[in-house]
Write a structure and sequence with these properties.
alpha/beta; D-Maltodextrin-Binding Protein, domain 2; single chain; signal; globular; 329 residues; NitT/TauT family transport system substrate-binding protein
């Protein structure tokens, strides 16, 4: 009897090992290129940290490509399967006559993520105080710059006439340029804006996200051919993302900060919590992956206002919500 018991245990162990190996082999790797590493993308890191992608049989190979142009180039050259970047980039590619258009399939953020930072402390800020100032804006043609100009015009400020607008500084160098003395005001993402405030280098006076309304600011996108050939994997990816979005929605900033801290090792967890709360309070994190038509039209209105819209593109041409809708089910 003892012999049979040992034999049974050995066979069970062998079967378990084979099953484990088989499961590992079935895990599909999807290469994701993110435009920057930012607390603004908290739900993505929650999905990674909480194992939501792995639960769906997906392994995410995440690379930071630092900038919209580089991210889109990486996707177009098959250096990545999926890109996390502003939806405007898909419009730029489509307008150049792409045979295999880039399709937006899941939304991550639904407002602008930048803040207006003043060099000097302002007790009672009003937008007209920017008139006559030097404003260090974001790279021309990108969503931050277009939203920045859109908001200025909304407050009756002509970006070309009412202030000195600087737009020739690379995205990665904008914060350093401001810290070195360039500009009276600067448009910055978090956590840089809050770090500057902590260090006395600047003061957050307004939110571009609050001012500009809802837009598909950052979305997951892929080539149309890739979506067709990998439908099941994209479904799984989107379902994991939706789980993370719901988790972010139902947990407080402290819990979210603790979950995503491994992706921001050089940032104090208290600062991460502060930034997450700021983004949550202004509704920056999309609560589901569906990019709706109103947001798409608002995006193109902002692009048109900035004279950066090559041509109007119909919502159904570059947006596929089927994966997002299945994820919700």
């Amino acid at each position: 009897m003892r012999k049979w018991g040992l034999l049974f245990a050995l066979m069970a162990s062998l079967l378990f090992s084979l099953f484990a190996c088989s499961s590992k082999e079935e895990m599909k790797t999807l290469r994701v290129a993110e435009v920057t590493r930012s607390i603004f993308y908290a739900p993505q890191y929650v999905a990674l940290a909480k194992g939501f992608f792995e639960d769906e049989g997906i392994k995410v190979d995440l690379t930071t490509t630092w900038g919209g142009d580089k991210t889109m180039t990486t996707l177009l050259s098959d250096g990545a399967d999926i890109a996390l970047v502003g939806s405007e980039t898909s419009i730029y590619v489509y307008s150049q006559g792409a045979n295999d258009p880039i399709i937006n399939f899941a939304q991550l953020t639904q407002t602008d993520g930048t803040f207006l930072v003043s060099r000097n402390k302002v007790e009672n800020f009003s937008w007209d105080q920017l008139k006559g100032s030097t404003f260090l804006g974001q790279r021309k043609g990108g969503m931050p710059q277009m939203v920045g100009e859109y908001v200025l015009k909304k407050h009756n400020i002509d970006p070309q006439k009412d202030l000195t607008l600087i737009q020739n500084v690379e995205f990665a160098n904008i914060a350093n340029a401001f810290a070195s003395g360039t500009g009276d005001y600067v448009q910055l993402f978090e956590p840089t804006a809050s770090i500057f405030e902590q260090e006395g280098k600047g003061y957050i006076v307004a939110s571009f996200g609050t001012e500009s309304g809802r837009v598909p600011y950052t979305t997951f996108m892929a080539k149309q051919s890739f979506l067709k050939e990998n439908e099941k994997d994209i479904e799984k990816f989107t379902r994991a993302l939706y789980k993370a979005q719901q988790w972010v929605q139902t947990h407080d900033a402290k819990e979210i900060a603790k979950a995503i801290q491994p992706y921001f090792e050089d940032t104090d967890v208290a600062l991460i919590e502060k930034v997450v709360k700021r983004y949550k309070d202004q509704g920056s994190y999309a609560t589901d992956p569906i990019l709706d038509e109103e947001e798409w039209n608002n995006l193109q209105e902002i692009m048109e206002e900035a004279k950066e819209l090559p041509k109007y593109v119909d919502y159904s041409t570059l947006v596929n919500t089927s994966f997002a809708k299945k994820a919700e089910q």
